[in-house]
Specification:
Distance between the termini: 27 Å
Helix content: 25-40%
Strand content: 25-35%
Number of helices: 8
Order of helices and strands: EHHEEEEHEHEHEEHHEH
Structural class: alpha+beta
Number of strands: 10
Shape: globular
Amino acid sequence: MKISENVIDFSKLSTEKKHDFFQQLWDFDQKIFPSSRIEQLYEYLHDPDAVAIPVVQFFHRDKLIGQNIIRILKLNHKNRPILIFNSRAGVLPEYRSHNLTLNSAIKVAMQFQIRFPAIPMWFVATVTQPKVYTLFASRSVKFYPRYDAEMPEEYMDILKSMRVRHHDVQQRTENIFVHLCDLPKVTPEQLVQLRNKSDVHIQYFMQHVPDYFDGMGMMCICKLNVSTIFEASMNIAMGRAV
């Protein structure tokens, strides 16, 4: 199956083009997150700290089948700049076995690592589904929180600093933070399939976020340096889980 990609940096568009492109993004976003509000996507795309917002769109036979909106924030942490990568992504159900969103995020991270090698980069995202959590946690041992390792203090400091960007964050254990998110569209059949394919990562997620089906998500973090990006890329290429 040949799937093509198109990348557009939303932050670099003119006001008129932003308006038109936003409507396109919103139309597809509703297919993935039908309960979300348009104000949420607007705020995500117009964050004043964003220095770039590459949008990766996926097409199959000229049909839009998925999109990954990667927001890159430039923040100050302990008197030095850092880059924070967020992702709001969705792919139509029949195309979800291709790791499209993870692969596209790695490509963008590699580009920024080359452009800004001296600035620490972090991926911080709230994960709302066990299968998405295991997709990330099984590709890098530096993805936290995880069942087999304690979160390093450096990671915890960044994660705590990002709490203020969300409402009503709950702390369930020392390194587990959760909050309500947009609930992706999931069928009962997909929930049954998920439980049939349970692994240690899925079990860990469901243990700490049993209310994920109500829209609760777990805040996760991974440091984006050369070794982590290379590790994730190799594990995906070799089909290897960690």
